UniProtKB/TrEMBL annotation:
Keyword terms of this UniProt record: ATP-binding, Nucleotide-binding, Translocase, Transport
PROSITE patterns, alphabetized: ABC_TRANSPORTER_1, ABC_TRANSPORTER_2
Record-given protein name: ABC transporter ATP-binding protein
TM ranges: none
Species, as recorded: Paenibacillus woosongensis
InterPro entries in UniProt: AAA+_ATPase (IPR003593), ABC_transporter-like_ATP-bd (IPR003439), ABC_transporter-like_CS (IPR017871), P-loop_NTPase (IPR027417)
Gene Ontology MF, one: ATP binding
Amino acid sequence: MIEVQGVEKSYGRQTVLKGIDWQVQRGDFWGIIGPNGSGKTTLLNVLSGVESPEAGEVTLDGRPLATYGRKALSRRLAVLQQDGLPPMAFPVRQVLEMGRFPFQNWRGKEEGNGAEALLNEIVSRLDLQGLENKPLHVLSGGQRQRVALGKVMAQQPELVLLDEPTTYLDIRYQMQFMELVSSWQRAEHLTVVAVMHDLNLAALYCDKLLALRDGRIVAMGTPNEIITPEIVKSLFEVDAYSVMHPDRGVPQLLLRSEQGT
Ligand SMILES: Nc1ncnc2c1ncn2[C@@H]1O[C@H](COP(=O)(O)OP(=O)(O)OP(=O)(O)O)[C@@H](O)[C@H]1O
């Protein structure tokens, strides 16, 4: 679905992506991991077309990303940031409707009447009943991020790019958010690429992980291949144990204290 070939990206004299080669197949759930400043967000921005690489190319279904118009691209891919929506005064239902923008004509109208049913389904899937008429600024951060996910769902993308989407959520809402994304991904055979800071959540929900350090890919593979003490040490310079999750059969990290036991 996506092919990244020899991508280089610089800001001023700093090269932040160096020779990135990567392929994403339809239906994959990828996590991008790596330390602060390693280029994760920049790579996501190159995939969404927000940033253009100086060298190399990104293609979406065989066609260079740069040749897609903005509206055509937003019918294919959607992006959700850390704090997906600011605390503005728009009511929840209206914010969900904004997700339909790529399908509206110049008068802001959509052909057919499928959108209402779709929005109702999203409201019930995300448990937003009762919040539909409330303005965003009265919601909690966790509720607001659920609405942000709903707006992205309303866009009916084939590819979803998530940039640290659970950063401001407590552990209950982190789990809930990732479960919602995961069930949506399975139901619609979506392709998901998520920048993940929490390696344990990444191991639980991503099928494949790409590890970046200093703008280069240092490892790619399944969570079992990537979430190892050696790779984690090489990325983050921390010592950790890796244990198997008893239910899910994926690795989970336990950090080791610098003082020992
Ligand atoms: N718009 C920009 N202008 C100048 N430098 C930038 C810009 N965006 C990113 N950078 C620099 O590029 C490097 C990579 O940044 P990027 O945000 O991609 O890293 P990251 O891995 O997502 O980091 P974090 O985990 O802290 O979010 C950093 O050194 C950053 O300062």
